């Protein structure tokens, strides 16, 4: 699954070009860096790859979400709809910007259910964040259509879906903007890092200024600080070393990462298909899947648990997201308990420490029914014959229960 599986000479070459300049910072030092701008070049090439006009690199996928929300003008008193199956970063970023997350059901794409989305929209809804979980597309065209009817911007969380597409268009490019993660276990990685893409130049400029509150982002005659600041910002700058790795990984994304993952996923899927009663995740565009995960359903939760027990006993256990504390709504204890370091209880409480938002662990019954019978395998970039044989044997044993 992760791009670190293929680290090699291309990544080393890009990194050494940075070290030869002695400049790790993405801005300034034009004479010393001798034309080497790795982060800027990474932004330009990633935007072109996604078919977008602009890209803004940042320190993480989480930072990408916050920077995008800030640029969209989301803040205190606003609501942002996202789905109940996602990594915690999606909704924690919403809280951190001052807004309130509202959770939506998923369907058998394992992504946002457009029908439930429509029901969750209120006058306070200021953004919608569908998540392209595990490399495959949400019903993004339907979601955008719903959002457009209500004049609400769509921010695509594409953290796990770099390189994925729907009907020939890259994910992240359907909404107002799209965010990506390049952390250590993502499809392509820079160790840590993130990106935001958009076609909106003014939105991009706001992102550029917000993610770096210390340097100029427009040509001005007054030197550093001469452009004037339009608003308060923060520091989410990507380093040149990260940009260098990103350039190498992007160049290898389709051929050296996604292509072997597709081959390995097909082999694993053939083995999984032998399970009685198994069905597979609804993937809207098989050609556009980046093949980082293989998700399948058993007839019911009891069967899923029994099958996974056999798989685990034979060294080939799958992920059972129904009990996962990082990605699934009823297991987010810090959300349900309103846990925070803030003495006032913010963001779950108001300025007088009165609880203002409470989440019902049983609030997404459709998602619960889906997750209860779901098992998932991560698909590696490199899959040995021995490992495939182990998985196949484990599945054959599970098929007999």
Detailed description of the structure:
The chain has 401 residues and is of the alpha/beta class. The chain has two domains: 3-253, Aspartate Aminotransferase, domain 2 (3-Layer(aba) Sandwich), CATH 3.40.640.10; 255-398, Aspartate Aminotransferase, domain 1, CATH 3.90.1150. Helix content is 37%, strand content 12%. It is built from 13 helices and twelve strands. The strands form four sheets. A four-stranded mixed sheet has the order 1-9-8-5, sandwiched between helices. Strand 6 and strand 7 (169-170) form a beta hairpin. Helix 1 packs antiparallel against helix 9 (240-272) and helix 3 packs parallel to helix 9 (240-272). The chain is globular. The two termini are 29 Å apart.
Domain tally? 2
> Which percent range fits the helix content?
25-40%
Look at the structure and give the CATH class of the largest domain: Alpha Beta
| Mean pLDDT over the full residue set | 95
- The CATH superfamily title of the largest domain: Type I PLP-dependent aspartate aminotransferase-like (Major domain)
CATH domain fold name of the largest domain: Aspartate Aminotransferase, domain 2
* Helix/strand order: HHHEHEHEHEHEEEEEHHEEHHHEH
The main pleated sheet reads as: 4 strands, mixed
Write down the Rg.
22 Å
Q: How does CATH name the architecture of the largest domain?
A: 3-Layer(aba) Sandwich
Distance between the termini: 29 Å
Shape: globular
Structural class: alpha/beta
């Amino acid at each position: 699954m992760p791009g670190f599986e293929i680290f090699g000479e291309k990544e080393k070459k890009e990194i050494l070009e940075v070290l030869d300049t002695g400049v790790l910072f993405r801005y300034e030092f034009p004479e010393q860096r001798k034309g080497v701008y790795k982060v800027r070049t990474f932004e330009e090439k990633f935007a072109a790859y996604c078919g977008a006009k602009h890209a803004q690199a940042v320190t993480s996928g989480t930072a990408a979400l916050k920077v995008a929300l800030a640029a969209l003008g989301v803040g205190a008193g606003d609501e942002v709809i996202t789905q109940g199956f996602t990594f915690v970063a999606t909704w924690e970023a919403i809280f951190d910007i001052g807004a309130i997350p509202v959770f939506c059901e998923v369907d058998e794409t394992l992504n946002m259910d457009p029908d439930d989305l429509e029901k969750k929209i209120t006058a306070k809804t200021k953004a919608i964040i569908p998540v392209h979980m595990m490399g495959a597309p949400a019903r993004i065209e339907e979601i955008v259509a719903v959002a457009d009817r209500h004049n609400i911007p769509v921010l695509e969380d594409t953290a796990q879906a770099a390189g994925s597409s729907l009907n020939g268009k890259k994910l992240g490019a359907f909404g107002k903007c799209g965010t990506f993660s390049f952390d250590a276990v993502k499809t392509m990685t820079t160790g840590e890092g993130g990106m935001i893409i958009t076609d909106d130049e003014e939105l991009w400029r706001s992102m550029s200024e917000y993610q770096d509150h210390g340097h100029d982002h427009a040509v001005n005659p007054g030197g550093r600080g001469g452009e004037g600041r339009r608003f308060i910002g923060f520091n989410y700058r990507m380093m040149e070393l990260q940009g260098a790795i990103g350039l190498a990984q992007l160049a290898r994304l389709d051929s050296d990462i996604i292509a072997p993952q597709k081959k390995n996923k097909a082999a694993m899927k053939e083995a999984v298909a032998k399970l009685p009663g198994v069905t597979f995740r609804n993937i809207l565009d098989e050609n556009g899947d980046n093949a980082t995960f293989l998700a399948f359903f058993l007839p019911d939760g009891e069967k899923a648990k029994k099958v996974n027990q056999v798989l685990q006993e034979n060294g080939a256990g799958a992920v059972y997201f129904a009990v996962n504390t990082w990605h699934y709504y009823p297991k987010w204890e810090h959300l349900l308990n309103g846990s925070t370091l803030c003495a006032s209880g913010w963001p779950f409480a108001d300025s007088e420490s009165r609880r203002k938002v409470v989440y019902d662990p049983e609030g997404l019954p459709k998602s619960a029914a889906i997750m209860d019978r779901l098992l998932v395998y991560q698909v590696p970039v490199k899959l040995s014959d021995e490992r495939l044989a182990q998985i196949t044997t484990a599945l054959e044993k599970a098929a007999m229960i």
